Task: structure prediction
Amino acid sequence: MISLNIEKTLGFISREKVFAYEPLVKEAQNALEKGTGKGNDFLGWLHLPSSITQEHLEDIKATAQVLRENCEVVIVAGIGGSYLGARAVIEALSNSFTWLQDKKSAPSIIYAGHNIGEDYLYELTHFLQDKKFGVINISKSGTTTETALAFRILKKQCEDQRGKEMAQKVIVAITDASKGAARITADKEGYKSFIIPDNVGGRFSVLTPVGLLPIAVAGFNIDKLVAGAREAEKACGADVPFAENPAAIYAATRNELYKNGKKIEILVNFNPKLHYVSEWWKQLYGESEGKDNKGIFPAAVDFSTDLHSMGQWIQEGERTIFETVISVEKTNHTVLVPSDEANLDGLNFLAGKRVDEVNKMAELGTQLAHVDGGVPNMRLCIADLSEQTIGELLYFFEVACGISGYLLGVNPFNQPGVEAYKKNMFALLNKPGYEEESKAIQSRL
Result:
């Protein structure tokens, strides 16, 4: 299970102050468990891991198999929480170079509907011209502009290219149970569909079919992923004492740091496969906590790469930051540093050592340097990169986010600010029904 070390935050804040949060954390946990807090209609994620049935997983795996047997490429059409969770898991577990290999054991997973890039969509549709492809369309409403636009284009191409009957087989909808454009389309066209539960928001949806279906199509074991999340559900439960509960301590520590002027949290990894876990985490915490003119700003870096770009600012810039380092204890492969007779690069002192040992020393050395430079550090340890541990990590962050949002005094489960850009965009595009907004916004241009 995940372990959390907060020793390198002490000196900036005190252990006593962190542990003084215990009654407040208990209050937040009770609000989550009893559904008495803000946003209580979006708590379906809280006990989701333990409520997922084997029958449900088998249904998802069977659908994944249909796509695997009939597609070289599967497009995941979604934005924000509708694709980031799946991408985080797939990228963390995939061979970094599978996409370059001619022979693949699973369809290539490509993402669309997460931008409005015309060149991106042109290049995607051009690439798909000679491919047997399918689409997983993920949208609760079916009217989210970015995703609906991409799906409209991909649906037509799939039908034109593969025929209506095959398109019906290789297009899957993940949407609302009974309403919305995507539900109507799925029912009309006869697509296989899965439900996004009403009480699970997008950024908490990775353990629903939203995340599980693409992950299964990519060839990963969703039973183990869910099992890992179940372990974290137990380890981070409201009945676990504060001192033994990593999610409770993480939430308390980051809020105490925030109270002491640390306004930016940087999630750090030393394994490039975790890049999209960071992207998913940024949405989870940014969208959950950034409201009412409050909230820690979530940022992320990939080390040691970004030590050569952001390292200077982190070491000596404005002291408003703290870091949370995800440390992976064990790699899946071994590479030894060879000896070189000329030794022009001066690296023979590393000969015979594993590359991961070098990386671990970079991790430790960086942490010490940043603490010396005035940056508090937390360290999250996971055993390896596997379905089990990634499942643990994702649920850990989810439950800590719920606790942390309540400690901050905000509703962690809504996102009213996201609607502002949409209203302006629709007004500028003269969408029917936005006539008054169109007039008002034209006067500002």
